[in-house]
Design brief:
- The two termini are about 35 Å apart.
- Helices cover about 35% and strands about 15% of the residues.
- By secondary structure, the protein is α/β, with parallel strands linked by helices.
- Helix 1 (about 75-85) crosses helix 12 (about 330-340) and helix 6 (about 200-210) crosses helix 7.
- The chain folds into two domains: about 10-175 and about 265-340, Rossmann fold, CATH 3.40.50; about 180-260, no CATH class.
- The protein has an eight-stranded mixed sheet, sandwiched between helices.
Length: about 350
């Protein structure tokens, strides 16, 4: 609660990870990325002990160093996690904080010709690297992925895409039910583009790069939509397709590409339903006043998981009194629930 970092009972290791898969990415973003690895109290004292691992993915506009940011009267997530383990409120675990920043503000942790291979970077580079250097329990049944907002989206989708890597997930207000969360925003975005950039994303991007971000109305809102389009609907040559036209109406063939990436709809497909059924634990929560209506996305994903055949005892679903922001106090609740199920 103090305005400076607390001493940790565990240890937070700072690494610079050199990614072969991000080298030469379409946006020219760095392929060397910060990686934070937390080990719990007692890790150095018990050299024969191995631990489950929880991977943390940040939301849109986040990057890994921001987990250390401080806000008034609150502790950072690494401090909250450390307090959880130091107080023996959960089985000890290794917690890995992964960077997925791009020049557009985020990657959704997907492989895309518009941004780069962020899904493969996580699953095929970072996970094996951590297993090789830390005393992990190196199996999917002892490994989870968790995140909030776009990080929650990453948790849902990554677990469905790679159940061989992750055996549990937690999503806090994760992007889901795109028809409710994304589509209603399109007319307002089209108006911003028309009124400030002559209806051109090319003009918006050129201007954005030459000014302080946020000094023109709609800067962040337009960049957010463009970032999602770069993740969901980029062509093989990297061309980014926008899912709405100059009236704010959807472009059906592009919008379908977005829907193909909606966790709720993905969960209804046999391959992904099978992946969800294999999860040892699925935590789903959101604030009941979420400004992006991701409380409805949470409910829809819960129903999709149930329809896919995930046993009820493996699902934790909860709506709590909050909006979209400042819900970091929820993260250790999910962390404890996951580690209890990953430790057995």
């Amino acid at each position: 609660m103090l305005p400076w970092p607390a001493d940790l009972a565990g240890r937070l290791d700072h690494h610079l990870f050199d990614s072969a898969l991000l080298r030469g990415n379409p946006l020219g973003d760095p392929h060397r990325r910060s990686l934070l690895v937390y080990v719990p109290p007692g890790y150095d004292d018990e050299p024969g002990r191995r631990y489950p691992v929880v991977y943390v993915t940040h939301g849109y506009t986040g990057q890994v160093g921001m987990w250390l940011n401080r806000v008034p009267f609150r502790r950072s997530y690494p401090e909250l996690a450390d307090a959880l383990f130091a107080g023996r409120q959960a089985p000890p675990a290794i917690v890995v904080y992964v960077d997925g920043w791009t020049a557009y503000g985020g990657s959704q942790y997907l492989d895309s010709p518009g941004t780069g291979r962020y899904h493969s970077y996580l699953c095929d580079e970072i996970v094996p690297w951590v297993d090789a250097r830390y005393r992990t329990l190196p199996g999917r049944d002892h490994r989870a992925i968790t995140g909030k907002s776009s990080g929650g989206y990453a948790a849902m989708v990554t677990a469905m895409l790679r159940p061989d890597v992750f055996g549990a997930l937690a999503t806090h207000a994760g992007d889901a039910l795109f028809e409710v969360a994304y589509r209603p925003e399109f007319p307002a975005r089209a108006r911003l583009l028309r009124d400030h950039h002559d209806g051109s994303f090319d003009k918006f991007l050129a201007g954005f790069r030459g000014r302080v971000a946020g000094t023109v109305p709609g800067d962040i809102e337009l960049m957010e939509i463009y970032a999602y389009a770069a993740a969901y609907s980029a062509d093989a040559d990297g061309t980014v397709r926008i899912p709405f036209d100059d009236t704010g109406a959807v472009v059906p063939e592009v919008w379908q590409r977005w829907l193909d990436r909606d966790p709720v709809l993905m969960a209804a497909r046999p391959r992904y339903a099978e992946a969800l059924r294999s999860m040892r634990a699925v935590w789903i929560d959101a604030g009941s006043r979420d400004e992006y209506h991701l409380d409805f996305g949470a409910l829809a994903f819960r129903r999709a998981a149930e329809a896919a055949g995930v046993p009820g005892e493996r699902i934790h679903y909860e709506l709590f009194d909050a909006g979209h922001g400042a819900i970091e106090y929820r993260y250790p609740l999910a962390l404890a629930w996951l580690t209890e199920r990953l430790s057995g």
